[in-house]
Amino acid sequence: TNPVQNDEQQAVRPRSSRRVTSYHHPFQTRCSPCNDPAPSYASATRTPKFPPAPRFFDNGKEVLPKYTCSVSREGPMQMRIEKISPFQYLQKQDFRTVYVVLNGTQLSVHKIKTVQLAGHSLPTAGRLIKRYTLQHAEIGLATDIQYNQLLPATRLAHFIPSAARRKAYEKDPELFTPISQVVLRLRLETDQFLLADHSEERIFRWIHDLSASIDISLPLDERSAPKPCTIPRRRRRQRTQATENINDQNVIAEQEQIMREMYPSLARSIERGSDGAELSRTESAEDTNALTLTGTIDQEVEDIDLSFLAEDLGQEQQPSARPANLRQTTSSTVSTWRYIKRCMPTLLFDAPRATDIIMCHGRRLRVNTKMDMLEEWELAPPSYDVHDF
């Protein structure tokens, strides 16, 4: 059974890419060489400049400052496990509601428990299901999953078990209200599972906190500089060839209307330039070939978010009392979240692993894909090539 299939229909798989697009922390499998000079013999026999400090009675019993965790998040989410090892897939399962707690470099999954507070039901953490470490973890949006949570719309629907709600919804769609979910995929230790929530903003904040936890999970000597994605990904959509007649007057009028609405400043400059010269369209073969060549070149250009540009143009045209030399840097909330979404990492079901090293029961193991097994692994010393012998 293919676990990428959703509960309603089989999700269309995008073109598989061998490039790692998930968020992970770079890890070196070899130690870095130490280029510090050796100490001199004189420093070993030199007497200390200051005498050792006297020992007090409270030495080693000082009151430590309070510890506060700056990376933490918790809340109820929908969860579905896809793999329990890099080589073992699970059968198709339904999403179940759990309570997820992120505390520093540890992610805990609990059963959800409801408590009554001031007449309101609040979800909280129940019995612990499993704990994960964020060392050598990978996270990203599961763009190959489409999932809708079914909420009961009638009293009768509340008595239908969760496992039978999908079939009941297919027979009578009025029993439930489908809520679209944003799905996040995680690879922690030997497991691979999905977390879903209806709020896109909440998922983005989870990705931000999980990325920070991944960056600080390794020991200080093994950490590298984090590499977050701050530039939007390039979109590679399957474009269809235009079958319309480009010389059709209706098509030309429609394109002119789009240019006037999306780029009013450009349209005014064209109209001013057309006052002194008469523009004419000839239906010759040369013009047709030139337009066809232009359309072919544009197919390789990255997609442009026209709505984002329209918002920027609208803001620039609004009169304001600010100085003319002061650059406008504010943008709407919608365009900001659209930009954040394009910067989010993605992790597909069969995407290649960023590293072959994983954590299992507190030990580091190497994934051997040829033998389909996990091997013992230790940090190797630096190679002789780095010393330039």
Automatic annotation (TrEMBL):
Region: Disordered, residue numbers: 1-54
Annotated InterPro entries: PH-like_dom_sf
Domain of life the protein comes from: Eukaryota
Gene3D superfamilies: Pleckstrin-homology domain (PH domain)/Phosphotyrosine-binding domain (PTB) (2.30.29.30)
Protein name, per record: PH domain-containing protein
